[in-house]
């Protein structure tokens, strides 16, 4: 079972599931988008960290449906970055009968770093490998770089 959270909602202590909280958030985002573009929003593609379990992914799909959205696809964050790269670089990529161009995608999140290698041609993208490692939080990185800068003097 996914965890539940006690929150103060409209001046009252209430307990909500993660799915309910995500649905509330997605409903707000949907309303903001609709107000911004002046048209209804129905379909949504949601990127998620690669560490999300099947259970977490299904909960997010349910939350999108509760929010009145049609979740067309859930896609890993690194796959989303690779997709954007492939779309914007399409003509620069090798032809299908040539050796693919290998591109590394680095996602430095708050608590982990994900590295994916994707092989591109003009017709397809193939994820060669993906790995995830625990990474220090930004404050730890900042302290490290400050120490490196001062110790190098």
State the total count of DSSP E strands. Answer: 7
CATH topology (fold) name: Nucleotidyltransferase, domain 5
Q: Mean of the pLDDT scores?
A: 84
Structural class: alpha+beta
If strands are numbered along the chain, what order do they take across the biggest sheet? 5-6-7
> What is the CATH domain class?
Alpha Beta
Helix fraction bin: 25-40%
Strand content of the residues, in percent?
Answer: 25-35%
CATH architecture: 2-Layer Sandwich
Radius of gyration: 20 Å
Low-confidence parts lasting 5 or more residues at pLDDT below 50?
none
Number of helices: 4
What does this molecule look like?
- The protein is α+β, with helices and mostly antiparallel strands.
- The protein has one domain (4-151): Nucleotidyltransferase, domain 5 (2-Layer Sandwich), CATH 3.30.420.
- It contains 4 helices and 7 strands.
- The longest helix is centred in the N-terminal third of the chain and has 20 residues, at 18-37.
- The radius of gyration is 20 Å and the shape is globular.
